TrEMBL record:
Upper lineage: Bacteria, Bacillati, Actinomycetota, Actinomycetes, Streptosporangiales
Residue sites binding substrate per the record: K201
Peptidase S11 D-alanyl-D-alanine carboxypeptidase A N-terminal domain location: 3-231
Name of the featured protein: D-alanyl-D-alanine carboxypeptidase
Family, per entry: Belongs to the peptidase S11 family.
Amino acid sequence: MVAAPPSITARRAYVVDVTTGKALMSKSSTTRVQIASVTKLMTAYVVLKRAKLNDVVTVGKADIQWATSHGATGGGFKAGERLFVRDLLYALMLPSAADAANALAVKYGPGKTKFVARMNAAAKSLGLKDTRYANADGLTSTKSYSTARDQAKLAQIVLKTPTLSTIIKTKKYTTPATKIHRKHTWTNSNKLLSEGAIGLKTGYTAKAGYCLAFAQVKSGHLIVGTVLGDKSDAARFTSARKLLNWAGAQVAAAAKA
């Protein structure tokens, strides 16, 4: 007998067994909502389509002020620091640095407007029919939205991208001091990594609530999921943990049947 999905506090959720292609659980998964910094999965994907990892990008005063003025997380940069794209992707994905997102968008749009257009073009080409981006950092906008199902689909694509699949499962990253930038150390905000998860991205705004795209191998199967609109930082990890454990039990039970 198949056990019912666990009760979770997230308002939207979607879980898929990537190994079999079977959707395991859906909770309002096609409702269009804000997704906060889960947006940065697409930002990183678009950057990698246009950049080389050893390209050098300047983090400007405007990038830092944008993050600061919106109460967003920053990477601890000083205006004028120049970093490799590789390093900025770690800043983007681990601490969720909005200044890194803006610096990359300015460079690889070029300009934020063109970069967002590239994000939306990528969403269309990837079949994310219920997704629209308004910025590269996920800050609240009346023009942006996605769904739990679309973001689970994007998560699968990100996991197949070698550079990103390495970055999203990294717990801590340090870039040493050089002639063009200071030493930086960034810690991943995804607490599930210490429990065997292999990604992907956290997000939070007052409008979106607490969000998380997550992935883990359970009983030999890759399980990918998203929870959107959860009530707290701890709650989103609890919701994801419950879903992963439940999905793992389903996979194990199916193998024995």
